[in-house]
Each structure stands twice: as C-alpha cells, then as structure tokens.
Amino acid sequence: MSHYGYSLFPVPGPELTRGLEKFADALDSACSLRPKHRAALPGVVRQLSTFLTTDRSDWPRDYMTRPEYLSAYLRWFMPWNLFRQGILLQGLGLDLPAGSRIVDLGAGPLTFLLALWLGRPDLRDRSMEYIAVDRAEPALKAGRDLFSAMTGTATTNWKVRTERSLAGHGRLPKADLLVAANFLNELETSARSSRAGRGSARAGSSDEDEGIGGGLEDRILVRWQKQVTSKGAVLLIEPGTRPAGRQLVRMRRAALEQGWRVAAPCPHAVECPLPGARSGAWCHFTFSSEGAPGWLHKLARKVKLPKERASLSFLLLTRPDSPISIRPFPRVRQGEGLALVVSEPFELPDWKQGRYACSDRGLLLLEEKSHSNRGASPAGIRMGGLHPGDVAIVQWPRDLRRDSKSGALILPRASR
Ligand SMILES: C[S@@+](CC[C@H](N)C(=O)[O-])C[C@H]1O[C@@H](n2cnc3c(N)ncnc32)[C@H](O)[C@@H]1O
Prior knowledge:
Blueprint: E1 2-7, H1 14-30, H2 35-53, H3 67-92, E2 100-105, H4 111-119, E3 128-134, H5 137-151, E4 158-164, E5 175-181, H6 184-196, H7 206-209, H8 216-227, E6 228-239, H9 242-257, E7 261-264, E8 285-288, H10 294-302, E9 309-318, E10 336-341, E11 346-348, E12 352-359, E13 362-369, E14 390-395, E15 401-402, E16 409-411
Parallel strand pairs: 2-3, 2-5, 3-4, 5-6, 13-16
Antiparallel strand pairs: 1-14, 6-9, 7-9, 8-9, 10-12, 10-14, 11-12, 12-13, 15-16
Helix pairs in contact: 1-3, 1-5, 2-3, 3-4
Bound molecules: S-adenosylmethionine.
S-adenosylmethionine binds near residues 64, 78, 111 and 135.
C-alpha cells in the first residue's frame, strides 16, 4: 500500500488557523452581542443544534432573521462550518479559473466565501465573482460585515454581491460553481412541507417548485443545470449525519444518470458502497477538531457540546469538460486501485485493526496489525497512518475474501 500523502482533510494551514483565531475579534467588532443574548447564548446554541441536526420542519423558517438565533449561528455554527469547510477546501485544491462566478445558495452569513478566503489564500489574487443568495437579509448583512472585518481592504479581486431571495427565484447570471452548504436539508424539509400543504396559500412558492416527488434529486438537478454554465460544477456540503449522507448518495445517483461527473469524494463512478441504508454505514468523513481555535473549544465546554471530532459529507459534481477540477487523485497502474479511507481505525480480533475504504470494487476493509497495544489495553488502536479522507493506492490480490459482517473485501496488509 502506498499512502502518497493525499488527504481530503489535511491539518488546517497557517492562514486558516490564524483566521479562525481572529474570527472571535471580527465577531465582537462586526456583530457585537447584546448582554441579554450573551447570557442566553449557551441555551440557544443547544436548541439550534438540535434543530439543525434533526428534522427542521417544526422550526420557524425565518430563524436566521431572529437576533437570538442569528447570534447563536454566528458564534457557534459559523466558526465550526468555517473550520470544516476551510479544511475541505484546502484538501480539495479546487482549481477555479480566473473570472469564475460562484453562486452560493442558502449562503447565510457567507460562510463558504470566508472558508474559501481562509482555506485557499493562493486564490486571493485571482479575479472571482461571488453571489450569495439567502432569504434572510440579516444573515447576509452579518456575512458582509464579517467578511470586511476579516479581510480589510485586501478583497479587490473578489467581487462580492448578496441577493435576498429564495433560491431559484430572481434572475441571476449562470454560475461556474454553484454551492449549497448546509442547505439541502432545509430545501428538502420545505419541499416536504410545501407538498403537504399543496393547495394552501403557500402553493406556487419556489419551494414548491423544488418539490419532492418524481425524484426530488432529479428535479433539483434539472433546476441547477439551468443555473450553471454548460461547463460548470456544483459543490454540496452537508453535516456528517446519516440522513445527509443518504441524501447526497441519492443526489450522486441522479447526477450520474443525468450525465454529470462525480469529481469528489468518490475515486470511481460506480454504485456507492456506503448508501447508509437501514443501519448500514453511510458516506461521511470525520477528522480531529484539535486545530480549531482555543476560544471555540472554550465555548464548546460552556455550551456543553464538547467536540473532539468534526464531520461532514460532501459531493462535487461537474459537467463534462468542466475546467473546474480538484487536485488529481494519485495515478494507478495495472493491477492497482484507489482506496478512499472512510472510517476511523477500529479494533479487529487477533490484535489487528481495520479501516473501511471506498473503491471501484466496492467497500474495502483495510486490515493491519495493531502495534500500539503491546502492554497497553487490548482495545488500544494505533491512530497514526491513514485517516478518513486519505487516498491510498492498493494492489489487488488474486483472491479476495469478504468480511462476513460488512460484506467488505478484505485487504490484508501484505496486499497494500
Ligand atoms: C443552515 S444555514 C447554512 C448557511 C451557510 N451556507 C453555512 O454553511 O453556514 C441555511 C441557510 O439557508 C437559508 N435558506 C433556507 N431555505 C432557503 C430558500 N428556500 N431560499 C434561500 N435561502 C434559504 C436560511 O435562511 C439559512 O441562512
């Protein structure tokens, strides 16, 4: 096995680390918190957290316009999203040609824009147009103020515009890169409730247009196809939860059927081996939160939501011949394949450890001897080596066994 140092989730670089540290000051200067909201923050963060990671249908759609929820979003969710998205953008190494136009649907406080700024400082000199679309003007305004506070006068090559509207409404120029981050869940929820309320006063809204039925994913893609240039791309970033992972797998299937390419994370275009059906594993990535700033960890203790690991799921779709690409996966020779690690290491019998990986032959179980547990607890697992999001080259052995529990093809150490 060769590792090649290819990781979709590298440790945060210096610009991202410094930027996240500085973000606390930007919040204080651009979006200062009223004393009553400061006192209520931990409780509101916990409430919002339950809402954002479960079914959102019971929640007010305008939560981002309500000061207490917006404050909680800016101080808790936004910095964690900056951390997650910043690391992903660093690892993906997106090649965005000069003059690219990014349209960010459900942009909220322009999280993606700032994550790109912090995660890809090499793109700062490149001319870029960014349009944020959201129905909540207060979130967009907070985003504009925060971006100015973070970048000062250094933004001359990035043209930033915000549009207060429902996604899919209004006339926007076509995007080279359409982004939807932590947004699909809301779209799905509103589509579901629109469908339930068909015939009611809400019928005919844009949410209805995006409705479920006849394949929500197909309909969304048809709509997005009209919003993206013929050589454009769509980047979806969602939480690392099972429902989000399952939805991205459905989007991936629909996209392949409609002629899109899947540029990432999959190192193949065959059926996803991690669809998350019933209690089965789903495609998502976890990584250490150690690189997050001290002030955020401190807040995590205060709100009693300590975070040792961060997680997300994502999908990058491109139209054929799109100039938008990622850092190329390692090249393989005859008899070799790519394995994208999708799990943390776990203990196996006989002092072995395993990790699941995704490949064009389906799910793999990468097996190896566990070294660290000599004299330590039997549960000790070596945490070094491959991490979720790492891409390795494997040599296919002639005979492959299957793991009886997961059905994964077992690749012993010697085969890699
Ligand atoms: C969870 S936030 C995500 C914000 C940002 N993308 C991020 O990753 O931090 C979802 C955003 O979608 C917006 N939103 C929900 N439904 C929308 C719709 N139909 N049209 C436009 N914006 C919408 C909400 O106002 C909110 O700001």
